[in-house]
Amino acid sequence: MVIQQLDNQLVDIIINHPDVRPTVEKGDHYITSAELFNGENIIYGSPLGAILFVHKGGGVYEGHIAFLPQGRGKAALQACSEALDHLFREHKARKVVASIPLMLRPARFLVRRLGFASEGVDPAKSVEHFVMEAESWAV
């Protein structure tokens, strides 16, 4: 899979897809990604999924993923790996953090498989926090 930078229309289609939406946000209103396309954030993916890195400052990015069912598994692993490689090499990211709902076991497995380290579970929010330092990525 070759990842590409995505436009907000394709990202919006992916994040509002019925097979993705329940894991992104609960509710009936349409979610838009337009505000994320501000020059500081980095958005990669394919027509089967989106990988968003929201810039938090100081070389730190918060990672988000949304994949359609046919883009999950090995395809998602490869796409996320390519996106992280681009992020660390081209954008000189220092660290990526992610918070994944406990109910999304496949997503938690995916980030572990990518090499993210768990920083523990927040039982109040039902999420597990992960971190990937640039030094631990094979750049």
Q: In words, what does this structure look like?
A:
Helix 3 (74-90) packs across helix 4 (105-114). The chain has helices spanning 8-15, 21-24, 74-90, 105-114; strands at 4-5, 42-46, 49-57, 60-67, 95-101, 117-122, 127-133. It has 139 residues and is an alpha+beta fold. It has 4 helices and 7 strands. The chain has one domain: 3-Layer(aba) Sandwich (Aminopeptidase). It has a 7-stranded mixed β-sheet, with helices on both faces. 28% of the residues lie in helices and 32% in strands.
Q: Could you give a quick summary of the protein structure above?
A:
With 139 residues, the chain is an alpha+beta fold.
- Structural class, judged by helices and strands? alpha+beta
User: Can you identify the CATH superfamily?
Assistant: Gcn5-related N-acetyltransferase (GNAT)
Please work out how many helical segments DSSP would assign: 4
SSE pattern:
EHHEEEHEHEE
Q: How are the strands of the biggest sheet laid out side by side?
A: 1-2-3-4-5-7-6
Q: Count up the domains.
A: 1
Alpha-carbon distance between the two ends: 19 Å
Largest sheet: 7 strands, mixed
Content of β-strand? 25-35%
Overall geometric form: globular
Could you list the spans in which at least 5 consecutive residues all have pLDDT below 50?
A: none
Mean pLDDT: 88
Looking at the overall shape, the CATH architecture is 3-Layer(aba) Sandwich
- Please give the share of residues in helix: 25-40%
CATH topology: Aminopeptidase
Number of strands: 7
Global Rg: 14 Å
CATH class: Alpha Beta
